[in-house]
Amino acid sequence: MRGCRGGWTLFELLLVMAVLVMVAAIVSPSLESMYADVRLRGAADAIRAAWARARASAVNQGTAYRFSVIPNSGNYRIAPDNADAAGGKAGANGADPDNQPFVLEDVLPKGVSIGFSAAPSAAGSNGPASGSPAGTADVGQYVSAAVFLPDGTARDDVRLLLTTRGARPLVMNLRALTGGVTTKRLNPNRQRP
User: Which of 50, 74, 124, 132 could pair with 108 as two cysteines, CB 3.0-4.6 Å apart?
Assistant: First the structure.
């Protein structure tokens, strides 16, 4: 009588490996889509926090603050809404270098881009361009998206579109008078008027 088998055959090992590879191939797109959704939600949270910071700075300092973006990238910037401070120049707040206005430059998670249109742009649908590292983008590239006034309101209603590969675009709406922010998914199958 033969004893117990002491190991696995090469065929059995290859069969198990093939099953694992097939399971990974099936699960991978779902994980990628889920991660893209998490990046998009994180970007929306970052913008919501930046808007709150710009509003608070405008109220606390008694001067209008601008939230600007580089369209079709992930770069955004908060700075006072005046020519001297908008460029982030030292000494923009008079001669007192210790009393500089609040200026913030940041980048959304990799692969997330900001736009102004409700229709996905070519850059957004084919994988948005990554943003430049914070503080390295040229100030002249920024486009004003929202201006927060010292009374706590914004100058205009704002509608931003956040896109990333693998997730449906996210639309962010800022109400000028109330400061309320809403986010919703853009349905690509629904025709917009």
Answer: 74
